[in-house]
Amino acid sequence: MLEKLKTLNPEIEFYDVSDREFASYGKIINNLDTTEIIEVAKKIQNPESGSLYVPSQEEFKTLKIASDIETNYFGTLPTQVGYCWGHNNLMNTTEWHFSSEINIAVTPLVLILGHVWDIQNGMIDSSKFKAFYLPAGTAVEVYSTTLHFCPCEVESSGFGCVVGLPKDTNTNLTVETEEKLLFRKNKWIIAHVENEALINRGVVAGITGTNYEIKYK
């Protein structure tokens, strides 16, 4: 699959998440048993088009892995385990948090990643980003300094990705702020200049260059 993705997407640097290039973006987690949560997640129906995100997925709350993530990766701080799933193949946007994020690939998927330090005056060129392939079942920690957004599918049936974060991340702001890039709680975001839908919702246009479209067939 990785070689196929590299061939079909020559305009972006493509790597497997196990490659050394991933080291500054995050790390693979080998001590989480993802079997149960993947089985539960696979029962959640994909939308016909577009993607969905729930910050805290009800079906995940009672699973052992939810408490393991809270204890081992967020130091017992209140944690949410949510789900991002559906259909997507565009870069479109990027975001970051002041915390790591745990991702579990329910299906094989691609993450388009960058570094927050490459944002200058609220702008970044898409050439600063790289694509990483995650086989199904892979769990990773994505560092707080890593730019990321909705995974891209590599199957026509869509993608599924479990998302672990500090509680209330990605939920609506409850206080006014002058920080233009803060879009939700613990969620800073900039849109590609071509992403009119988010720009019309008040997201700052900050990504220039190619709006990468991940091709897999």
Which second-level CATH architecture applies? Answer: Sandwich
Name of the CATH class? Mainly Beta
Which residue ranges are poorly predicted, with pLDDT under 50 across at least 5 consecutive positions?
A: none
* Helix and strand element order: HEEHEHEEEEEEEEEEEEHE
Structural class: mainly beta
Spatial ordering of strands, largest sheet: 2-10-6-13-4-3
What is the number of strand segments? 16
What is the residue-averaged pLDDT? Answer: 97
| Count, helices | 4
Structure, described:
Helix content is 13%, strand content 33%. With 217 residues, it is mainly β. It has a single domain (2-208), classed as Jelly Rolls (Sandwich). A six-stranded antiparallel sheet has the order 2-10-6-13-4-3. Strands 1, 7, 9, 11 and 12 form a five-stranded mixed sheet that branches. A hairpin with a 2-residue loop joins strand 14 (182-184) and strand 15 (187-192). The radius of gyration is 16 Å and the shape is globular.
Based on the model shown, name its key terms:
6-stranded antiparallel sheet; 13% helix; Jelly Rolls; 5-stranded mixed sheet; 4 helices; mainly beta; 217 residues
Secondary-structure topology with pairs:
Layout: H1 2-8, E1 14-16, E2 26-29, H2 35-41, E3 51-54, H3 64-73, E4 79-86, E5 93-96, E6 101-105, E7 109-115, E8 124-125, E9 130-134, E10 139-142, E11 146-147, E12 152-153, E13 159-166, E14 182-184, E15 187-192, H4 196-199, E16 205-208
Parallel strand pairs: 1-9, 8-16, 15-16
Antiparallel strand pairs: 2-10, 3-4, 4-13, 5-15, 6-10, 6-13, 7-9, 7-11, 7-12, 14-15
